[in-house]
Amino acid sequence: MPSSTLSRVKARPGRGYWWYLLPGAVAFTVVVAVPFAANIYLSLTKWSGIGDPRFVGLDNYTRLLHDEVFWTSFRNTAAMVIAMVVVPTLVGLVLSATLFDVIGRRFGPKAASFLRATFYLPQVLPVVVAGILWGWLLRPDGAVNALGEAIGFGTHDWLGDPGTALPMVMLVMIWVQIGYPVVIFMAALQRVDPDLYEAAEIDGAGWWSRFTAITLPQIRPETFVVTLTCTIAALKVFGPVWALTRGGPNNATTVPSYFAYNAFFNKLQVGYGAAVATALTLVIVAVSIGFLKAQRRAEEEAS
Amino acid sequence: MTTLTLTRARATRRDPDRYKRGVARWVVLALVAFTAALVLVPFAVMLMNAFKSPADYSGNGPLSWPESFQLDGLKTYWTQVRFEGKLLNSIVIAGAVAVLGVVLSLLNAYALGIGRVRGRLWIVAAFLLANMIPQEALIYPLYSMAKATGLYNSRLSVIIIFTVIQSAFGTYLLASVLGTFPKALLEAAALDGAGRWTTLWRVVVPTVRPTLSVLLIFFFIWTWNEFFIPLVMLVDNSTQTVPLALASLQGDRLMDATTTNAGALISLLPTVVFFLIFQRTLTRGVTAGAVK
Q1: Deepest in the core among A63, A175, A213, A295, taking most CB within 10 A?
Q2: pLDDT at A127 over 50
Q3: Helices then strands (H, E): number in chain B?
Q4: How many CA atoms lie within 13 A of B28 on its CB side?
């Protein structure tokens, strides 16, 4: 074996590979870095999209802090986190453990994977199609009210009433989101050693204690991934709100991304929209960093 | 690993009486099946109304079984939006993004994971950050740039944007996969006199092909389902995608209840077909993504 070739391979780490980064670097500069920087600049200006932007410093941000709709949009984001992260993760944990541990083992893996596919079905379709389907179901003359009349419950304008609009959007998001944790957790459970469960069963541990003592700790990495990705998705949610309510009635269901879109393209307040988008970016980055730190700490404690 | 689990599962099943205790398992099955049925109800209602005639709908309401099996709603929607054009737009956009996105991710990840270029941790962190940025924080400058370059309302604008956005995730994932690439294979290729370019296509790509195909399918489906950027960039009938076509007719007076349901049905069919075709690959990919 000519050792000189080997050492030559080892002696040149990095150099010559830069060329491979070039297309990516150019593309990212044009599509992400420059627009992102331009957006921050726009957030310091007043601009209708025509003519020249006028520099106003931090005016847009001080205006944001006093804008009731802005705060409503972030309160609604908290509702989206409940609907897209908290409920789907908790229900997903119980469902996947049940499918894996009870249905899969006592009724066969076919039954379990059929049910898993059913829960996953809403995840498959374009989310805006889901929004339009639900928008029709919940319309004053839609299927939900037809059912309500049939069982003597009466009718209600579910998406038109500020009191019920947000809970309905949350319901739709739970329906959309539930399949994602089920699929990931079921895949995670495949790698848990079955001997652990058998040993626990022989020791007389019931379903709940097996769930809390084995399932939860074993699939902790996947739980982190699911909660992080779903939280980012909840902070970014746009399509369903656009399709169901356009943020209404009276901003009751507005979210930051819809608020920014509305400022950009309906109200023609580009600078203000850019400030909302920048604020949203900061929140997302802060939440993600917080998550990753918490994960690292949890891993250190576990090891 | 898989075979091991399988034999274990078979071994446990051979010991039947431990699992036949009580009726509790039937109650559990009933509960889970009921929840699954609840998930399916909106699809069932949609199917019922997609095949009704408008007269049937206005006479009997949304909850009745169709009097006869009508394809009028489907035909109306198809011709109304010229659906074949939308389908083509979606296929072109999602297909181009999937291929270009994977190639771009691969080139980036080759430099980062195998080339180990200096400062790679910072570069990977930048890709991770690009993943988090909401599209709202890029959209107005992108919209202005597209207008200035004449790319506004073109499929190319959306293809370029999503190729970059998807490859942010792809680079992040592939860089960590290639970071563990067996050194022996690279050294063997170098001994055979293969340069970097040859090594990439003859050694690296064949080895990580499963990951690449998962990425390809993911990029395709994600791009197919995208809404926000297409909503801003694609404003006309000749460029719009499948989800946009349905959305832009929302509230239109031509969209009666049966057409709405038929439209929703036609719009979700392609994605359900992809799901059925790629189910295995996707489940594997979801796991790969989760563990990384």
Answers
A1: A175
A2: yes
A3: 15, 0
A4: 22
| Angle at the Cα of A8 from the Cα atoms of A24 and B115, rounded to 5 degrees | 20
Is the ipTM reported for this complex over the cut 0.90? no
Residue at B288 is within a domain = no
Could you tell me if A156 and A164 are in contact, meaning their C-beta atoms sit under 8 angstroms apart?
yes
Domain ranges in chain A?
31-66+269-303, 69-253
Q: Cβ contacts (< 8 Å) between B1 and chain A: which residues?
A: 191
Distance separating the N- and C-terminal Cα atoms of chain B = 18
Residue B112's domain spans which residues? Answer: 82-248
Judge: A107–B133 Cβ closer than 8 Å, yes or no: no
User: Could you report the per-residue pLDDT of B159-198, keeping only the tens digit for each?
Assistant: 999 999 999 999 988 988 888 888 888 888 989 888 899 9
Domain identity same for B229 and B196: yes
| Arch. (CATH architecture) of A69-253 | Orthogonal Bundle (1.10)
Residue B33 shares a structural domain with residue B160:
no
Same domain membership, residue B170 and residue B112: yes
Closest-CA distance of chain B to residue A262, Å: 11
Instruction: Write out pLDDT tens, residues A38-47.
Output: 999 999 999 9
Q: What pLDDT does B21 receive?
A: 56
- CB-based contact, A20 to chain B, within 8 Å: yes
- Kindly compute the dihedral angle of the four CA atoms of residues B42, B48, B49, B52, in this order, to the nearest 10 degrees: 180
In one letter, which amino acid is B18? R
B258 pLDDT more than 70? yes
Query: Tokens 């992102």 identify what position?
Result: A36
Assign 3-class secondary structure to A120-142. Answer: HHHHHCCHHHHHHHHHHHCCCCC
Is residue B13 predicted with pLDDT exceeding 60?
no
Instruction: List, for residues A194-206, the tens digit of each pLDDT value.
Output: 888 888 888 888 8
Of A55-69, A127-141, B9-23, B133-147, the one with minimum mean pLDDT is B9-23
Q: Which of B45, B191, B232 sits opposite A137 (nearest CB)?
A: B45
What's the mean pLDDT in B266-282? Answer: 83
Query: Do B133 and B20 sit in the same domain of this protein?
Result: no
Between chains, do B130 and A243 touch, taking CB under 8 Å as contact?
Answer: no
B3 lies in a domain?
no
Least Cα distance to A61 among A79, A78, A40 occurs for A40
What's the rounded mean pLDDT across residues B87-98? 95
Residues B141 and B99 in one domain: yes
